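Can you make up a protein sequence with its backbone structure tokens?

===
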Amino acid sequence: MSAISLIARDELRLMRRNRVAVIAFALLVLLTLAAALISWSHQRSIAETRARFQAQASEAFEAQPDRHPHRMVHYGNFIFRPLGPLAAFDPGVDAFAGNSMFLEGHRQNSANFGDVRQSSLLVRFGQLTPAFVLQVIAPLLLIFLGYGAVARERERGTLRQMLAQGVSARALILGKLLALAMVAALVGLPAMIAFLLIAGQPGALAGPMLVIAIGYAAYLALWAIITILISGLVKRGRDALLALLALWAVLVILVPRIAPDVASQTHMLPTRLETDIAIAHDLHKLGDSHNPDDPFFTAFKQRTLQQYGVTRVEDLPVNYKGLLAVEGEKLTSRLFDDYADRSFGVQRAQSRLTDGFGIVSPAISLRQLSMAAAGTDLEGHRRFLTQAEAYRYDMVQRLNRLQADAVSYANDTASDAGADQRKRISAGHWHEIPPFRFKAASAAELVKASLPGLGLLLSWLILAALALVPVARHLQKARS
């Protein structure tokens, strides 16, 4: 048996003799397993609840009686964001970004009912998910198990004896690292059980799952290397423990909390009130279809009359009010899309700056990789909002065209006793509007989005491994 294997076996034996370490390891394994099962069950419950609400909303929309089409434009419809299977591992921004939208004419509403707004403030400190356990708690266990791996040999005076007997410092470090890496692998094993649960769900994608597995394996290996590295640099185990705890607090807790604040201050996002005021101002400048002297809609009226070769709107073969509704929705939606693009531009800049802190903190790189591969990052949320807006626009314009084609202008402008009934159209038209179908990102898109985070994380791993070389040389000199 090689020296590296002997040292690793001896280190594992010492860990097994430490009751506190064994109990802590067992508790973390149970916590990871519990987090996986709870998160999986929670996400299944959320998916079922949203699917049920979506079915109820669609049923209520289609159950509306004969109405004027524009009434249905304002009646609107609800849609709910479906979650992918990997959200059970890392829910990402879903708890903060909202999961349902009310779609109506003349407005582009935001997503509502995020879990954070409906739950205790403790949710902000992190949900109990496999991702949270492996990102935050697992490195602590590796620190407590390995902080004295090399420093202990110095304190006991056994380091010089081992070196004098021909054991190289390189073999010593690799043996200690091998033992701690085996522990890290066992810590990550329950998370693989979560993957087995997820793998059987519809929509589970092998590529993103593989990227997540590689990312978390690299992250745990990195913390094993960092622990051995610090233990080899200091002379006492107590000093190694303090240094590692400080490093963990900075890299895992402090920097990931500070980075979003720095990003939000660097790229200021207008408040909802400021945006609403700006939109109202721009809407006023677009024109007023109810004002007969409005320049834009006066020109639109003339173009419409020329197109159909008539001189009065009463002579048009279609309902002019419906044409106005179609044109007005086109203008307002274009304006809403412009403001949405600006807002997401700022948010994307904030996200890029936050992800850039991955150069300082590997936890940020892992989080970016994990959310991107799971489809629960900012871009995943925007995909939902973009498809929701496209569906809203199509739904409203279908109803507006029904007003133009199925309701006559004479009936639409009439005010006699029976006019209200003549303006209504058959409820069967509501059934012809297709339901909302969310199209999730493909495996290739998810993998591509996760590559920057994976690249940063692997760079951290390579640099940490290279840093072991001078530490081994430094320890080798201890023999002299």
Notes: The beta strands are 77-80, 100-103. Confidence is low (pLDDT under 50) at residues 116-125.
